[in-house]
Amino acid sequence: MSKEAKKETKEKIILGIDPGTTVMGYGLILTEGKKYKFLQYGVIHLKKYGTHELKLKKIFERITGIIDEFLPDTVALEAPFYGVNIQSMLKLGRAQGVAMAAALAREIPITEYSPKKVKQSVTGNGNASKEQVAAMLQTLFNLTEIPKLLDATDALAVALCHHFHEGRVQTRGRNAGWKSFIDENPDRIKK
Q: Which of 4, 8, 18, 69 is catalytic?
C-alpha cells in the first residue's frame, strides 16, 4: 500500500466544539478515508456557575476531560460570529480561547470554521437554521433522535465540516476562521 493510501485510510477522531458561555456543545466523529461515523455529542452546562471565571475553568476542565477520554487527532471550532454586543462577543471569544488552550495543552491541532461554512458544508445552505442542520445530521449519521439543545448538533456539524474540508483549510496559526468569515460575510464588516 502506498504512503498516500495509508494516510488516507488512517482512522481519525475529530472533536467539534460550538463555543458558548451558557451552553457549550461538543461532538465527536470517527473518520477513515472518506467514511465517517458518529461517536458522541453533548453539552457542557455553564449557567449554574456564578462568575465568568468559573465558567472558563469548567470549560477547560470538561474539554480536557473529553480530550483525555477520546484522544482526538484534531479539534474543529466554530468561530465566533460578528455581533452587535461587544461584551457578549468578548465573553464568547474567551470561552473559545479556553477550549483552544485545552487542545493546545495536549498538542492537538485546531481549525476554525465560520458558522456559514459549517451550515453550507452540512446542509448545502449557508443560511440554514439550527433545526435544519440537526435534521441533516440525523439523516447523515442515522441518529434516532435530535437532542433538545442544538448546541450539541452544532458541534457535531463543526466536526463533520472539518472532515469534509480537511486538507483544504489552513489550520490555526494565521486566523483561518476569521479570514473565512470575512470572505463569506463582507456585508457584516464595518469600514
A: 18
22 within 8 A of 82, measured Cβ to Cβ: no
Burial 36-58 (b: 16+ CB within 10 A, else e): bebbebbbbebeebeeeeebbeb
For residue 183, indicate whether it is catalytic: no
Is 68 labeled as catalytic in the residue annotation? no
Q: What is the pLDDT of residue 83?
A: 65
Q: Which three cell numbers stand for residue 177?
A: 476562521
Distance CA 119, CA 126 (A): 5
The boundaries of the domain holding residue 94 are 3-172
Q: What are the per-10-residue average pLDDT scores of the chain (191 residues)?
A: 54 96 96 94 94 96 97 94 75 92 96 94 93 94 86 96 77 47 60 59
- What is the total count of domains within the chain? 1
Residues 6+ apart with CB under 8 A from 46: 20, 21, 22, 23, 24, 55, 58, 59
Annotated catalytic residue within 8, 68, 78, 154: 78
Q: Residue 52 sits in a domain of what CATH number? A: 3.30.420.10
The pLDDT value recorded for residue 104 is 96
Task: Find the catalytic residue in 151, 154, 183, 187.
Answer: 151
Q: How far apart are the first and last CA of the chain?
A: 53
For the question of residue 166 being annotated catalytic, the response is no
SS3 168: coil
Please give the DSSP secondary-structure letter assigned to residue 17. Answer: E
